[in-house]
Write a structure and sequence with these properties.
By secondary structure, this protein is an alpha/beta fold. The chain has helices spanning 23-32, 61-73, 107-114, 125-132, 139-151, 207-221, 226-252, 271-275, and strands at residues 8-16, 36-45, 56-58, 81-84, 91-94, 97-100, 120-121, 156-162, 172-182, 188-198, 283-285.
């Protein structure tokens, strides 16, 4: 009997005891979709920092290296993928202004060392702009930004959310994707897609980690079809977000704002939608 084939992911992210962020957000969907997932928890917190209180520890570089050395000693470091968010998590926009989650002196490290090693990156608009060193206010400028990011190394770039104008109105976010592919004969083509995603009136934590994990899974299943991979990823995420906000409002009660605990992503309850997402958000080719 031949051994069963497996696809193994090393996921290096934060961990929370309660809720879904970092590895807690990424591991379950990857496992549901058939991946073996080895977890390195770079941070261990009681819960994410959107709560009023949190406690926990951050691992040092030496402690992380020690863990990996243990794997090496046992000759179990053969991975198909490394997922590290580093997706890149650097910053976001708030009230129209950009702000960084991490010290600004880490930006050159991302640009010069991290991004060139990546096959897939999933920045938001602000992160894409600061990596590329240019703004994107139009679709044309967004394509130019993605081309700059391609030139840094990654073959697949997905800008997970942007405030580009949507033909469907102000209540939609725009997601953009670009994938470089080498065809038979050596010629190179670039597939570019655009998606319009309904906004949800709530702040969620862990959606980026969930997005990155599911995109890894679906690009593995559809390596030469970014459109389908993004449609499955975004549709599954939309199912999860819709379920989460519906449950959160029900728990909070009429006219009350849901708490951080009530807004924890309903990942486990969405197992069927993760495994076989109904395509409710379609991508267009640009």
């Amino acid at each position: 009997m031949l051994p069963e084939p497996e696809c193994r992911v090393l996921s290096i992210q934060s961990h929370v005891v309660r809720g879904f962020v970092g590895n807690k957000s990424a591991a379950f969907p990857l496992q549901v979709l058939g991946f073996e997932v080895d977890l390195v928890n770079s941070v261990q917190f009681s819960n994410h920092t959107g709560y009023e209180h949190w406690k926990g520890q951050t691992m040092t570089a030496e402690e992380l290296q020690t863990l990996y050395e243990g794997l090496k000693l046992n000759d179990v470091t053969r991975y198909d993928y490394v997922l590290t968010v580093c997706d890149p998590v650097m910053g976001d926009k708030r009230n129209g202004d950009g702000y960084m989650y991490v010290p600004e002196n880490l930006l050159p490290v991302y640009k010069e060392k991290v991004v060139p090693l990546a096959d897939i990156i999933t920045p938001n608009q602000y992160e894409a702009e600061i990596l590329a060193g240019r703004k994107m206010n139009t679709e044309k400028e967004a394509i130019e930004v993605m081309d700059v990011l391609h030139a840094m190394g990654p073959d697949t770039v997905v800008i997970t959310s942007s405030d580009l104008p949507s033909a469907l109105g102000d209540n939609y976010l725009v997601t953009l994707g670009s994938q470089r592919k080498v065809m038979a004969g050596g010629s190179q083509v670039t597939e570019r897609i655009r998606m319009e995603i309904p906004k949800v009136d709530a702040v969620f934590v862990g959606t980026g980690d969930l997005f990155a994990a599911m995109l890894l899974a679906w690009t593995h299943q559809h390596p030469n079809n970014l459109k389908i991979a993004c449609e499955k990823t975004v549709s599954a995420l939309q199912h999860i977000v819709t379920r989460t906000i519906s449950n959160a409002k029900a728990m909070a009660g009429p006219c009350k704002k849901p708490s951080a605990a009530q807004l924890e992503l309903r990942v486990v309850q969405s197992k069927k939608q993760i495994e076989n997402p109904e395509i409710i958000i379609h991508a267009s080719t640009i």
